Amino acid sequence: MKNDGIQGLPILYEAKIFLEEAGRLNPGPWINHSKYVAEAARLIAEETEGLNSETAYILGLLHDVGRREGVTDMHHIISGYNFLREKGFNEAARICITHPFLVKEIECYSGKWDCSESEIEFIKDYLRNIEFNEYDKLIQFCDAIAIPSGFCLVEKRMIDVALRYGINDLIIDKWKSTMEIKQYFESRIGKSIYTLLPGVIENTFAL
């Protein structure tokens, strides 16, 4: 049985089971982060004509599911992709690859390149041969406004990631792309995205 938004997704119950299982294998703050990404995606999709809010929620839950393999960096995107592909969920697998690449260049990745040469070539080729769709962009943006304690202003998350993983030559392009996605969805819904996210101000400023 598949979700009715796009093909190649588990149903919501299955997605929750996958995340719970991953959390048992590799507990950590990434679980709550994933849940907030999912909730942000659902809230924005509900206001965006043509998007399925349950599809968005499922993709948000599963974007980091590759962390089930343990503490890894870039490799979690390959692990998540392979895990979901093996179960027949190709569209869910796609989000594991696309979510960190706000610029379609592997060099924009923030963090350690702990993939094999063949895996790196696979990621490069994958990015080269797709065009980001609205769900890709939505999860990319929601990944940039969700921390384990809730929603935050995107600038806070940008700095948080830069401080933890360092910066690279494409960081400005990546930040520009993030802000362009924000503007895109705000133009689609006709208001600030932050009006949809409960607690965003309090969580950003620890009020």
Automatic annotation (TrEMBL):
SMART domains: HDc. Gene3D superfamilies: Hypothetical protein af1432. Residues 26-157 form the HD/PDEase domain. It comes from the Bacteria. CDD domains: HDc. Pfam families: HD. NCBIfam families: HDIG. This is HD domain-containing protein. It comes from Clostridium muellerianum.
